[in-house]
Amino acid sequence: MSKHYYTIGEVSNLLDVKPHILRYWEREIPAIRPKRVGRNRRYTLEQIETLKIIKDLLYNQRYTVDGAKQKLKSDPAIIEEARQEAVAKQKLKVNAAMPAIAKEINDIRESLLKIKRECKKLSGNK
Questions:
Q1: 65-114 pLDDT, tens per residue?
Q2: What is the DSSP letter of 43?
Q3: What is the average per-residue pLDDT within 36-47?
Q4: Handedness of CA 17, 58, 46, 103 (dihedral sign)
Q5: What is the C-alpha separation between 65 and 58, in angstroms, rounded?
Q6: Strand 40-42 relative to strand 35-37: parallel, antiparallel, unpaired?
Q7: I want to staple 42 with a disulfide (CB 3.0 to 4.6 A). Which of 5, 8, 38, 92 is the partner?
């Protein structure tokens, strides 16, 4: 299955952005507030999608950080789009994992049936 939370290092590698840049964006843009576990940041898939949008605004569309913050604040559809993208990716991962899960369940079922047959043989019940 897929992960629920990603570390700042994983997100940094995924977005090809240094961790200190992510921390800076986190301080400046309220739309990004990763969960904190001790001193470690944990980003959700939705936050990663939002970070991709922010990176696009800053690097490709040439917004300033303040401009990107205002854009996200004034157009909530952008954040909703990131949320929907994250949900769609999560569904794809779950759907992709379903055949493997079904096979594993079937293998467990077969093992349990085999154990049941062995138990019946040992107890003398047929």
A1: 999 999 988 988 888 888 888 788 777 777 787 888 888 898 999 999 99
A2: B
A3: 90
A4: negative
A5: 7
A6: antiparallel
A7: 5
d(C-alpha 8, C-alpha 34), whole Å: 9
Residue 126 — very low, low, confident or very high, per pLDDT cuts 50/70/90? low
Q: How far apart are CA 43 and CA 35, in angstroms?
A: 6
Residue range 8-123 in CATH 1.20.1280:
no
3-state secondary structure of 69: helix
Kindly list the domain boundaries of the chain, sorted by start residue.
8-123
H helix or E strand, kind and range, residue 85: helix 76-123
